[in-house]
Structure formats: C-alpha cells, structure tokens
Amino acid sequence: MRLRIVHQLALLLVGAVLLAVLAVGAAVAWNLQAGFSDYLRTRDREHLERFAALVSARAERDPGFAEMRPGQLPMRELMDEFSATEGIVIPPRRPRPPPRGGLGPPGDGPRGDGPRMDGPPPAADQAADREQTRPPDRGRPPPDGLARRLQVTDPDGVRIGGPMLDIHRALLEAPVVVRGRVIARIRMLPSNELAAVDLRFLRRQYLGVGAAAVVTLLLALVVAVLVAPRLGRPLHRLQAATRRIASGELGVVVPASGVREMAALIDDVNHMSISLKKLEGARRSWVAQISHELRTPLSVLLGELESIEDGARQPTPQVLANLRAEVLQLVRMVNDLHTLSMADLGALPCEFADGDASVVFSRALQRMEERVRKAGLVLDAPLAPDAIPVHWDFGRIEQVLVNLVENSFRYTTAPGRLSVTWSLIQGRVHLRVEDTPPGVAPADLDQLFEPLFRADRSRHRTSAEGGGSGLGLAICKAIVLAQGGTIRAEPSSLGGLCVVVDLPVSTTD
Q1: Hey, what CATH topology would domain 353-504 get?
Q2: pLDDT tens-digit series, residues 57-82
Q3: Region class of 497: left (phi > 0), else alpha (psi between -120 and 50), else beta
Q4: What are phi and psi of 74, to 5 degrees?
Q5: Numbered ranges of CATH 3.30.565.10 in the chain
Q6: Residue 84 Cα to chain centre, angstroms
Q7: In 384-480, at which residue ranges do the beta strands (DSSP E only) sit?
Q8: What is the pLDDT of residue 486?
Q9: Pick the residue with more confidence: 455 or 113?
C-alpha cells in the first residue's frame, strides 16, 4: 500500500531532523571526548612540571639529595609532599600490624609484661617506629594513579625511582634543574582515566545532548503533524479539480496556493482547463460552421433538382452550369477539410524538388492576373526578379500564394491595389502579400488563420465569384508550417492587410 503524501512529508521531515540530530550529537560527543583528551594531556603536563619543580626545590635545599642514586630516592615522601602541595585529599593510611616477636611499647618485656632487653632495637623495630611516627596525612598516592605513572631517571636515562614504564609509548618528560645543571629527568605515562568529577560532568553533557535530541524529535513530529496536512491541502484541491475536468466540467479554476512549485502546477492546470474549454468551444463552432457551409450549396442543389423534377425549370445548360458550380464548391470544401485534417495529423503529403522560387511565384501571379483585374484591383509584382534557388514542394507553395491572392481580391474594395513582393534575406525567402482597405481589426489578426474564421465586421466579400470556403488562410498556415516556415498577419502600409510568409530555401522530408 502506498503512503499518502501527507505521511511521506511527515516521515521525510522527521527523518531529516533525526539525521540532523544524530549528526549534531555525534559531533558534540566527539568534541567533548576530544576536549577532555586535551584536558587530560594539559593536566598531566602541569602535574609533571610541578612535580619536577618540587624535586628541584628539594634538591636545592638538601645538597645530599641532589646526588641521586638508584634505590635511594624517597618517592613515597615526594609523592606525599606533592599531594599536600596540590591540595589532594588522601585517605588515611591503614596502620601496619606490630612486628613479629610480640614487642610492645618501649619499656615493656618481650610479651608486654617486662622491660625491654638492653642493646639497640632490631632493624624491623626501627622501620616500624618510623612507619608509626609518619604524619597521618601522608600515605597513599594521588587517586588518579599519578605515582604509578611517574618515573625519575638520571640524565642518561637510568631509572632512579618510580615504576617501570613502557618505553614504546609516548611519554611526557620534564628536566630537574639545580643551579643550571640537569641532575635528573621526570617521565610520565599519559593518563586515559577521568576523575569522578570529570566523569560526572561528561555524563551530564551526554545526558543533556540526548535530552535535547529527544525534545527536538518530538518537536519535529509535532511540526510534521501540523505542517504536512497544510502542504497536502492544495494537492487535494488540485486532485478534485482534475476529476471535475475529466468528468467534462471544463474551465475549472483552482486558487493558487502552497509552495512555489505547487502554485506553478496549479497555474498550469488552470491554463490547461481554460485551453480545453476553448478547444471544446472551437470544436462546437467548427461543427456548426462546417454544417452551415455545407448546407448552403446542398440547399441550392436540392432546390434546383426539385425544380427540375417538378417541371418548374428545364435542365438547360445554364441550370446545369449552376449545379456544377455548386458541386465544385462542395468538392473544394471537402478537399480543404481533408488537407487540414492531414496537416493536423502531421501527415500532409509533400513532394520536394529543386527549382527557382521567382519562377514559381511569377507563373502563379500570371495565372491570377486576369481574375485580379476582373475584381477591379491592380496587381503590383516584380517585373524581373532575381533567381532564388530553393528546395520546396512547389505545388504546395504555389497553393499558398494563390490562396493569399484570392483572399485579398475577395475582401478588398474595388478599385484597389494588390502588391506581391519576395526577397532572399539571410538564407530565407520572405514573401509579402498586401492590399488596400478595408483592413482587419488588430484583435482579429491572430484569428485569421483559424479555420472558418472571417473578419466580416471590417472586410466583406466583394468578389463576383462568391465567397470561399473560409479555410484558405488555415490551409496556408498548415502548408507553411509543413515546409518549416512561419506566417503572420499585420496591418498593411497600403491601408489593408499584409500577410508575411517566411520560408527556408531548403526543406527536406
């Protein structure tokens, strides 16, 4: 089952926020970890330098201390003094048990019931006395294991005191300087452990980042629930409008809303709906106009035939000529409709050949000159035009010129003038057909090439041959487009109409 766009938008928003939260959380965690690593290194460096300074001060106070020997360095005392100096609170040392032999306090007997024997006390007793008389605040090393990570060596690197360290690891080092002479070196193994307070702080930061991530995701979910339906609402209206259009309700307009892309899509659908309504109106008008155009000659034919059948008229040559003219009018209209239909299907048959455009235009105008003169117009055309080699379907191009000339003398008031010129400009042939008044209203210029359209309000039929089919200019446009050219109408400098045809010199199938 496919998800609705509202659900997809919500999931997309939550997923994007989740990825952002994970990325930010990982970056913050890495930054905290890196920051604490730097903090540990800095703290170890400071401890090392202060411990080295402590050893240097001790050596300066005690000249005998400066002569360090292996096994003679009191590391425990130095660590106790360093801990006291650093203010590190060390738990009290657990007292050692009394030495073996049952010796009691001084003055007691061997089992505590008599005086001690004469002579110096044993070495074990002396060590026990020193241990018991040690200050109670000195004892165990600092809590972070500093004593296990500090080592004292002589200038040559021989260990004097402290534990054995792994020399393959990166060790921190600081010199012990006494009166300008290096008497020892302090080595430290870097710490990877955090103190309890540091761990608590880091844990609080991680918990804070996690809580912020959860709150952010919840807010994103709330925003997705509120915003996603709002984003999908214009799409639902558009879907309802398209269903109405599909059911035949043309001209439906949806108010533009939503994001820019959605508003653009709604605008396109509105234009499509209006265009479909215009096309439907044109189709109905087309059917009505064709019916009207066909009904006139058919009515004439039917009337003449009924008159002959009833004996009211005799089938004289004149009557038969009139009937033949009406039949020819029907044939021309049917042929024109067929041409337009083939052009709409993109299957207008064309036969291309090489030739001279000037010769073709001149020959067509010579055939039309007598008809133009009978219509009361004067035809202006080039007397000796230059040759223009082209690759055209000359039958179709000649049909274009004949239709344009017929349109002019049918709708131009006599006496008048008709001008036809052509020229070669930048590899294209420009043909202009102009006439004298009446002209065409500017609002009708773009509709002149629509089938069965006539600007009868300004240009009336004046030809004695009767009106055409109303498809001449539409056929001209179809042929010109099939030849790869363009055609347009504009006001003429002579006061009437000017039709401009622009054709390439070479057109192939």
Answers
A1: Heat Shock Protein 90 (3.30.565)
A2: 888 877 666 666 666 677 787 888 78
A3: beta
A4: -80, 75
A5: 353-504
A6: 66
A7: 389-392, 416-425, 428-435
A8: 92
A9: 455
Is pLDDT of 502 > 90?
yes
Mean pLDDT value across residues 308-318: 83
Distance CA 410, CA 306 (A): 31
Instruction: Please tell me whether the peptide bond between 141 and the residue prior to it is cis, using omega within 30 degrees of 0.
Output: no
- From-to residues of CATH 1.10.287.130 in the chain: 260-344
Cα–Cα distance, 501 to 486 (Å, whole number) = 6
Residues paired with 177 in a beta bridge: 182
Is residue 114 within 8 Å of 108, Cβ to Cβ?
yes
Residues in the chain: 509
Structure token digits, residue 188: 């430290």
Q: What's the pLDDT score for residue 508?
A: 58
- pTM (2 decimals)? 0.47
pLDDT bin (cut points 50, 70, 90) of residue 194 is low
CA distance 235 to 244: 14
As to burial, measured by CB atoms within 10 angstroms (0-12 exposed, 13-18 middle, 19+ buried), residue 293 is buried
Extract the tokens encoding 65: 């201390």
**302 pLDDT higher than 80:** yes
Q: Is residue 497 helix, strand or coil?
A: strand
- What type of residue is 311? G
CB distance 418 to 379 below 8 Å? yes
Strand, coil or helix: 174: strand
* Letter string b/e over residues 453-476, b meaning 16 or more CB atoms within 10 A of that residue's CB: bbbeeebeebbeeebbbbbbbbbb
Strand (E) or helix (H) holding 177: strand 172-178
Residues 382, 428: Cα–Cα separation, whole Å: 18
Range with the lowest mean pLDDT among 3-17, 85-99, 176-190, 384-398? 85-99
Other CB atoms within 10 Å distance of the CB of residue 509 = 7
CATH topology of domain 260-344: Helix Hairpins (1.10.287)
Residues 116-129 have pLDDT tens digits of 444 444 444 444 44
At residue 167, the 3 state secondary structure works out as: coil
User: What dihedral angle (degrees, nearest 10) is formed by the CA atoms of 292, 290, 287, 453?
Assistant: -100
Residue 356 identity (one-letter amino acid)? D
